[in-house]
Design brief:
226 residues; alpha/beta; TIM Barrel; eight-stranded parallel sheet; 8 strands; binds D-xylitol-5-phosphate; binds zinc ion
Length: 226
């Protein structure tokens, strides 16, 4: 199934691999695949748009074959100043989609066109200080297939969920008709209220990988999102 079909298929919990134990990355991915997880979130930070340098195409290339072999997809969140500069390498490394920040996309339509020319699906993402209206306008210009509402300042896993994200998702849902994704501090305590507000895609880093059994945590989150 293609990325676009997964994101439109209903509620999905997407483990954020940035929060994985990298010594055991393959084992943790296998355990998630074994319980039915097929959509994985992959965070690339450039050390400039966000403070940390995170993970990038080298890691993507190692994991994409096993995820694709299982019918899964890699949803890539680019926390970088110049997203289009990285698209070619993401495409050739196995990315299925790229989601870029509206704060750095002067011409969202052109950035999206570049991604699509490489066979990548497109999402747009906006930070807590950016208005849902501005994000919705950028999503329309880009003909984005999803819009990601950050519930933290991007950069690190393990930060506290900003409760105002629920209202921002609700407002966004009145403005767009593409799937709404939420990223940052998502867990069992807020997933149902985010779903009611209009989100259907839930990125979860520490709520999955911070648990003693990530696969069991994924299943609990998926049940809470359903
Ligand atoms: C951080 C990333 C997130 C991160 C989420 O900016 O975009 O995807 O891994 O981690 P949690 O779920 O722990 O906030
Ligand atoms: Zn992310």
């Amino acid at each position: 199934m293609a990325w676009s079909d997964w994101i439109r298929g209903g509620a999905e919990v997407e483990p954020s691999l940035y929060a994985a134990d990298f010594r055991r990355l393959g084992e943790q991915i296998d355990a998630l695949l074994a319980v039915g997880c097929r959509v994985f979130h992959f965070d690339c930070g450039d050390g400039h748009f966000v403070p940390p340098v995170t993970i990038g195409p080298v890691v993507l290339r190692s994991i994409a074959p096993v995820i694709h072999e299982a019918g899964g997809v890699l949803d890539c969140h680019l926390m970088v100043d110049d997203p289009a500069h990285h698209f070619e390498e993401f495409a050739s490394s196995g990315a299925d989609s790229v989601t870029f920040h509206v704060e750095v996309a002067g011409d969202p339509a052109a950035v999206a066109e570049r991604a699509r020319s490489l066979g990548l699906s497109v999402g747009v993402v906006f930070n807590p200080e950016t208005s849902p209206g501005r994000a919705a306008a950028a999503a329309a210009e880009a003909s984005a297939e999803l819009i990601l509402c950050m519930a933290i300042d991007p950069g690190y896993s393990g930060q506290a969920f900003m409760p105002e994200a629920v209202d921002r998702v609700f407002e966004l849902a009145t403005l767009v008709d593409v799937p709404i994704q939420v990223d940052g501090g998502v867990g069992e305590v807020n997933i149902a209220s985010l779903r009611r507000a209009g989100a259907s895609l839930f990125v979860a880093g520490s709520a999955v990988f911070g648990a003693a059994d990530p696969a069991a945590a994924y299943l609990r989150l998926a049940a809470a999102a359903a």
